[in-house]
Amino acid sequence: MSTILTVAPTGPIAMKSDNPHLPTQPEEIAAEVARAFASGASVAHLHFRDEQDRPTADLNIAKRTIDLIKERCEILLQVSTGVGLDVEYDERARLVELRPEMVTLNPCSMSFGAGEFSNPPRKVESLARRIQELGIRPELEIYDSGHLDACLRLRDAGLLDEPLQFSIVLGVRGGMAATHQNLVEMVRRLPDDSIWQVIAIGRENLRLTAMGLALGGNARAGMEDTLYYRRGEPATSSAALVARAADLVTALDGEVADVTSAARQLRLGRTGADDD
Asked: What beta strand segments (E) does the chain contain?
């Protein structure tokens, strides 16, 4: 099975003052996603910023960004409902009404750096139900071991359809540390038919991405997760980070998934020739 590469060009934390190459406005994000698509990404994980570069769930900004991406390439779209620590949950949840092919679902509240990432259980359940009603594919972002158990409870309640799709997030202060032991243990505990990728934040990004690939997972790359190409060398684009991940796949005798293959593996609606 081919390996799905996701590009994450912009997150909720970093600013242009941290790295001037970080795309924040719709045109910048769309252009960077198109470059990453050309480098091997078949999925784009999207956050949005307002005109002051603050994280936003504004539907007009989100729709404009999505439309600009669709004009440039056929990449699969995954919208983050995490948005930012200061954005109210109900505003974040409304992003699913844009009906992208995929959205993220965060199962638990947690400390997140110096802030708090609020995901109240009843609201998570309501959002999971709405995602299911709309036929959108949820990606479950798990930052700690108990988050997996919360996802399995949602599954058992009939609010998540199998196979489950996970992002194992390592390195956020307040969640699991970015260690190989944590990654191996989380992979061991996933349901057997799960689709998964590792997201390593910061300096362990490359090492744990490589380990995740070696363990049979997919990979995410981009300036949401690391602002550096290598230690001491700032990244100049998310496309370069995607190309580096594609090189890792090839070095491990793997094949990078195209959009048709990725859509089939992720159980999305796009059709095409059979995957190997």
From this structure: 5-7, 43-46, 76-79, 102-105, 110-112, 115-117, 137-142, 165-170, 195-200, 218-221, 228-230, 233-234
